[in-house]
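If it is no trouble, can you show me the amino acids of a protein and the tokens describing how it folds?
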Amino acid sequence: MASASRALRASRDVSQRKSGRNVESKTALSNPAVPFIPELDEPDTNLRRIAEMECQRSRYAAEAERFRALRDDAIDDASRNLSLRRIAAAAGVNHTRVGQILKARDPDNGK
């Protein structure tokens, strides 16, 4: 009886793969402690590629946010000794943007 249900499940998985529906990976089916990771386990190559791109996008967005915070800290430190125009030239932004960054960090500090 167990082999019949296994054969039915296998044939259902094949038909779902052919129709393009999402099917969990064999790893996830055999071991429920292993999570389904779309960018690795998704059987459809198009969906796997989309999941991979989203994973990379979110990683790069987090990295960009980290560098933005580091830049803002450096601008804040430099604003004590340098003009907004010199800081802007070094940061590659407009001096008005430097003023906005400083004001957003500390409303009393904006020059």
